Amino acid sequence: MKNNFKALYISCLIGLMMISCQSSHGQDAAQEQRDRLFNAYMEVKKDIMDENFAASKAHSVQFEKEVQDFRLKGLQIDDMMRLKKVSQTMKTDAIELKSATDMKVMKQSFSAVTQSLFTIMETMKCTDETVYLQYCPMEKGYWLSYDKAIENPYAASMRHCGQLVKGMATADYPEPVACH
Fold this sequence. Notes:
Layout: H1 2-49, H2 53-69, H3 77-98, H4 103-121, E1 131-136, E2 141-145, E3 163-168
Antiparallel strand pairs: 1-2, 1-3
Helix pairs in contact: 1-2, 1-4, 2-3, 3-4
């Protein structure tokens, strides 16, 4: 009887360890996906800043794929419900970004995607770097930057035109939760 109890205890312990490992691996995979999403966003931003429409089209295809693959994992139910609509808006805006026929439309779609992505970032960590939401009142466009200094991607003649709206550092993100 004692040996059966011991065997059952060890089996349960091993099972719990496996579940724990799978759960942390799932969170690691989710974080890797968010990293890919944010890196794809930054590639599109760089192309828009360089006024390189062909490259921004190519990178917007990858960004749209990452947006479509994006999942709201590790959130509490109220955050998940709130961000579900934002996520759907971001998917629609990413499709418009990918489908842009000229740089003007690309920039408008990029600003819309930026707003959705930052709203999601306020709840979910998408990068280990501090990220700043910035805005150009002349172009009415938003973008994200790793730097506080303004480097406006919307107008080469106004690279330093804009304002800092808000910053997000790693310490600002809520603690992840275990529910999926």
